[in-house]
Amino acid sequence: MESIGLYIHIPFCRQKCLYCDFPSWAGREGQMQMYVDALTAEIRAQGKRYENREVVSVFFGGGTPTALEIPMLAQLMQAIRESFRVTADAELTTEANPGTLSYEMAAALKKMGFNRLSMGVQAWQNSILHRLGRIHTIEEFLENYHAVRQAGFENVNVDLMFALPGQSMAQWQETVRQIAALKPEHISAYSLIIEEGTPFWKRFGEGACACDYTGPALPDEDTENKIYRFTRKFLQEQGFERYEISNYAKPGKECRHNIGYWTEVAYLGLGLGASSYMEGCRFTNEKDLDKYLALDFGEEDPEKRETALRKLWGQIEELSQAQRMEEFMFLGLRMLKGVSDVDFVRLFGVKMETVYGDVIRRLTANGLLKKEE
User: Fold this and answer.
1) Contact, 72 vs 39, CB < 8 A?
2) Does the pLDDT at position 16 exceed 60?
3) pLDDT of res. 255
4) Which of 190, 178, 112 lies closest to 145, judged by CA?
5) 266-270 and 2-10 as β-strands: parallel, antiparallel, unpaired?
6) How far is Cα 43 from Cα 33, in angstroms, rounded to an integer?
7) By CB atoms within 10 Å of each CB, which of 24, 93, 278, 281 scores lowest?
8) How far apart are the first and last CA of the chain?
9) Angle in degrees, CA 148, 230, 245, rounded to 5
10) Which of 321, 310, 188 is nearest to 264 (CA)?
11) Can you say whether residue 151 is alpha, beta or left, with left for phi > 0 and alpha for psi between -120 and 50 degrees?
């Protein structure tokens, strides 16, 4: 039975962060239950379509999943368990903004079956959090981090972000040291990317006029490089293995869901704007909330269900063998363990050297790749 991961998108926030370009909104609380009902219908419809798949990971992202009320999250989790074959040892993660957490929420999530929590803190300094448009303070993060532990979560990730406006090397070092001292099982440390269409794009993006913005500037490339090197060295000393470009974990606590993205494991995106990779095809769900809410999945009518799913997906891109090989290579090489010729042959029926021999030999000679065993 083929293994897949599920991604569940929750497009609601209490406040949109200034760097975020994901499909999400603030101030639409009145549509939350309508969205949850529509998403529940999609989950049930997709469960019928992919009933012969085994779900090994579920990841609630957003937006802010914990912006939903507890009964809404419970409704979605129940629909997933009733519609899909979720393995007994599946990794079940939800993202959580510290400003939307409490002991009550954490305990409810644990009771629903979530066994991994990903908390976005980004920085240790309240001045920087305010600059990013975050809704929480570092004091609220600490209070809710301890609440999460008290609720019984033994697998917690903390998201951090560097190369932020006005951020100094000393501030980043304080952030990493303070977070590592809390002993989470996983730390994600991402460099800020200025995405088009965000408020940060208007300030820092291509063509932004310096005269329109007089606030703190972005760190230069040299500082960003020093931050990355410090992070890698310091977290390794604290017992975190850098298993992917931006991700560090204690042994055995790597994010299985994300590893699936990088290793050709099929994944199904559920909800507004969610992306999927199934059966060698890539497709993205409808991004207009009103159009999404208007879909009728007709659970008991297979023809009606398939019609709604085709509307939901829009354009379906079927990847060629060459494209799949390329993605196997460049996504797999994000990870420290690299790519396996055995896996390449299993998936594509040809040796890696046959397809990429010249470039592998050149990069190996230049010291940019190494071959082990």
Assistant:
1) no
2) yes
3) 98
4) 178
5) parallel
6) 15
7) 281
8) 30
9) 70
10) 321
11) alpha
